[in-house]
Write a structure and sequence with these properties.
heterodimer, A: 242 residues, alpha/beta, Rossmann fold, four-stranded antiparallel β-sheet, 9 helices, B: 318 residues, mainly alpha, binds adenosine-5'-triphosphate, binds magnesium ion
Chain lengths: 242, 318
């Protein structure tokens, strides 16, 4: 398997605060990897640097061998990177279908009109929003907005999908549906980096995990081993439990 | 094409034809009035083309208007008329691209101030050049263009601008604008080049405004910087567009017509108090109808029928 994404020595400083510090890891094509860490450890910031929302203060990011650090999001997205946001970002004045069509219209294939419509409906069905196309994005529930956001990401047919706590807030049944959805994406060959706090989901989905604490990488390896790692346990539960 | 949209197109064409024949049955005074009115319809529509979706409040209108008029005054003796207009459009485009690249990063009030400053800067530059290099302040424009001719050109420009604005509403660019208006982060993650879209719109709007100045220039025979770079033009355009509503295709037009007539009447009858009245009207519009008369009318109308109006979208009307 070849590496699709490589972060080398990535740092991000906000004024005096170092949110991410000298982080290095890589993803192989087709892998589903968990990015874990306690609150405020810098996970979302890493996602933001990969998707081009922030430029890293230091270090390089390579996507399929091409340096992308510091490029704006609209240049990175067409290279095959799509994401969802920790706090859902719907396009409230558009319909559910139009939200997805947006990704098609400006994505890699610049699809527009009837084809875009058909693709959008297909992706809405994929995430469980069949028949909801004409509803306004601001009228549907938070969970449905999350689904819609995933459909919008999938519509670009990304090689690399970044999911920032996409499974958070789902009830147990929805969680099972969500997990099987991500599994089906994995079967399609998509590489997925997911930030998640739901341990069951991590165990079910991720063969490998990268764990961060206070902006630094503290573990990187097979999921069961990483979750048993004393450093990781200490980071999550505090010193007493190590 | 549905029957309804076919009807709308037919109506648009009939009105346009009726307006085009106006000089044959109306007097000189009416044509002069219509030149001013059509000019402001184009200015307000072009202004809203950029400022409506991006929410950038521009006071640079008169900078481009004046550039258009001045280019004509400089080139009218050396080039054929069509090329003069083309040259004016080109100058407007270049200035818009340079200014846009430098300033569309500015947000909110900084952009407003800059755009106002730009108009003043251009005026001062032209004045300085004329006084120190050319040695005169004003310029004469001798062009064999009749006022009927000016009126027809402006009418054609108005039709083209409305058509363009309508077409944008249903194009990918229109979708990009809605997405940017909703959430710039999502827009950019979907692959939309936000700066590029804004620059494109700013430039198109600026070129149209430049053409209004260029087409109207022969009307005056003699121009000087304080005439064609008068900031009142920028303010009037802005008030008209805001009154009609910048989110709807017909909004700026419906704001421009009554306000233009009102201002004509006011400046004829109360020449001394005109600026004060202008200011008061401006304040009233911003406070009473922040989304424009069309939005207010739709709200009242829908309350009566008990339906909710979806958020504004461009181009649905034709
Ligand atoms: N735009 C920003 N400006 C300033 N500080 C920021 C910004 N974004 C994140 N931070 C800071 O960087 C640190 C890491 O934040 P980040 O959101 O990446 O954490 P996280 O691991 O995603 O946390 P959570 O699990 O709560 O989502 C925090 O201290 C946060 O306050
Ligand atoms: Mg986070």
């Amino acid at each position: 398997m070849t590496e699709i994404l490589t972060l080398s020595g990535i740092s991000k400083r906000f004024g005096g605060l170092t949110a991410v510090s000298d982080l290095t890891f890589s993803l192989k094509a087709g892998e589903v990897v968990g990015l874990l860490g306690p609150n405020g450890s810098g996970k979302t910031t890493v996602m933001n640097m990969i998707s081009g929302f922030f430029a890293p203060s230091q270090g390089t990011i390579a996507l399929k061998g091409e340096a992308i650090q510091g490029l704006p999001s609209h240049r990175i997205a067409p290279k095959g990177v799509a994401r969802t946001f920790q706090l859902v970002r719907a396009l409230p004045s558009l319909t559910v279908a139009q939200n997805v069509e947006t990704a098609l219209a400006f994505g890699r294939h610049k699809l527009w009109g009837r084809i875009a419509r058909e693709r959008a409906l297909h992706h809405l069905e994929e995430v469980g929003l069949a028949g909801r196309a004409e509803e306004r994005a601001c009228d549907i529930t938070y969970i449905d907005q999350k689904r819609m956001e995933l459909a919008r990401a999938l519509a670009t047919e990304p090689d690399l999908l970044l999911l920032d706590e996409w499974l958070a807030g789902l009830n147990p049944t929805e969680l099972q549906t969500g997990i099987s959805l991500i599994r089906s994406l994995e079967r399609q060959g998509m590489t997925i980096l997911l930030v998640e706090h739901v341990m069951d989901a991590i165990r079910a989905l991720c063969s490998r995990c990268v764990v961060m604490n206070a902006g630094r990488k503290i573990a990187d390896g097979a999921t069961d081993e990483v979750l048993r790692d004393p450093d990781v346990v200490r980071a999550y539960l505090g010193d007493d439990h190590a | 094409m549905t029957l309804k949209s076919f009807g709308s197109v037919l109506f648009f064409l009939v009105v346009l034809a009726a307006l085009a024949f106006l000089p044959f049955y109306a007097g000189e005074y009416v044509v002069t009035l219509m030149i001013g009115m059509t000019g402001y319809v184009v200015l307000a529509t072009a202004w809203a083309l950029f400022s409506g979706p991006t929410r950038y409040i521009s006071l640079a209108t008169v900078a481009f208007f004046g550039i258009g008029a001045y280019t004509v005054s400089v080139l009218s003796e050396t080039l054929p008329y069509v090329l003069v207009l083309l040259a004016a459009a080109l100058v407007g485009l270049v200035v818009a691209l340079v200014v846009g690249l430098a300033t569309l990063r500015l947000a909110g009030v900084y952009f407003v101030i800059f755009s106002f400053g730009l108009a003043e800067l251009v005026r001062q530059l032209v004045t300085w050049y004329e006084v120190n290099i050319t040695g005169t302040l004003g310029r004469y424009i001798f062009l064999p263009v009749t006022s009927d001719g000016i009126y027809w050109q402006l009418l054609a420009l108005a039709a083209a601008t409305l058509l363009f604005s309508w077409a944008i509403g249903r194009s990918r660019l229109g979708l990009a604008l809605k997405v940017i208006g909703d959430d710039e982060v999502v827009a950019s993650h979907c692959g939309i080049n936000i700066a590029g879209v804004k620059l494109a719109l700013f430039s198109v709007s600026a070129v149209i405004i430049t053409l209004v100045g260029a087409i109207q220039a022969p009307r005056w025979t003699y121009i000087e910087p304080s005439m064609v770079f008068n900031p009142t033009t920028s303010f009037l355009t802005l008030i008209m567009a805001l009154l009609g509503g910048v989110d709807r295709l017909w909004g700026p037009l419906l704001g421009a017509i009554p306000l233009f007539l009102l201002f004509e009447w006011l400046s004829a009858n109360f020449p001394n108090h005109y600026p004060i009245i202008l200011g008061l009207i401006f304040i009233a519009i911003v406070f009473v109808l922040p989304n424009g008369v069309l939005a207010a009318a739709e709200r009242i109308f829908s309350k009566r029928r008990g339906v909710t109006v979806p958020a504004a979208n461009q181009g649905g009307a034709l």
